[in-house]
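hey so u asked for the seq, here:
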Amino acid sequence: MTTAAQTTLIRVGHSPDPDDAFMFHALANDKLDTGPYRFTHELVDIETLNRRAFTGELELTAVSIHAYAHLTDKYLLCPCGASMGDGYGPMVVARDKGSIGDFRDRTFAVPGTLTTAFLALRLCLGAEPKHVVVPFDEILAAVERGEWKGQPVDAGLIIHEGQLTYANHNLSLIVDTGRWWMDETGLPLPLGGNAIRRDLGPQVIRDVNRLLRESIEYGLAHRQEALEHAMQYGRDLDRPLTDQFVGMYVNDWTLDFGERGRKAVAELLARGHAAGAIPAKVTPEFVE
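ran it, structure tokens below
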């Protein structure tokens, strides 16, 4: 039996959305033997997690791939736990119809400037968008109203389940950045991953990475059970839509980035650097 003195605390940060909840169900609800490790979970929006990662506060944290480019001194990417947009991804929606070019000088409500969604929008526009940062789950309402705290909002950059529910708000799709990226590169859009702190040492890093993969495998093998857990985090989603959304972002890509997924990460970071959005050239490093 593991004593309290032998227990290693692993603080985990992930988003309060259905795909992350599905992924972490087994770890959060004691479905796995975690041995000497005790996992605690903090559910926080992805931009807050991106910002917190700069201090290395959490041992294991969800991060945007865009944010990871600034965190390579502190974190490694886990090969499992990816959120990949395979021909789909964050969307720009608006009250008015039009192309993305029509919105070049308009103001976007965005979920954070370190999100991969923001980087993808910048690459798609060819320039940094005029923007106001809005909590991800309030963007659709802000676009409907046309303002956020007195600032004008012409379009919204939506992530998570808003990709399935924006039409309920009488909004039109302007561009799907995941589709745009696939057309540009032939690759999936690597939106987020799980990063583990380098200073934990090789053995702990390997063990935690293994347990994360086992949690993902458990969810996929016990889908209905994991969906029950995930549904409590799906705003405006019924069970079929929750299942659809989870299937978009917890799948074979989540078990392992694979060669093509790793290539996609490298391509995104290289294009971000070339566009001036990422200050240094970054070679992504994954847990072995």
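The chain has twelve helices and 13 strands. Residues 11 and 40 are 5 Å apart (CA to CA).
lmk if thats what u needed
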